[in-house]
Amino acid sequence: MGKAMLARHIQYFLAVAEHLSFTKAAAALHVSQPALSQQVRQLEESLGAQLFDRSGRATRLTDAGDVYLHYARRAQQELREGKSAIHDVSDLSRGSLRVAVTPTFTTYLVGPLIEAFHFRYPNITLNLKEISQERIEELLLAGELDVGIAFDEINSPDIEAVSLLSETLALVVSRRHRLAEERSIASQALSAESMVLLSPEFATREQIDRYFRKHEIRPQVQMEVNALGAVIEIIRRTTLSTLLPARIALAHDDLVAITLEPERLQRTAVLMRRKEAFLSAAVRVFIELVKEVSSDL
Question: 3-state DSSP call for residue 260?
Answer without folding.
Answer: strand
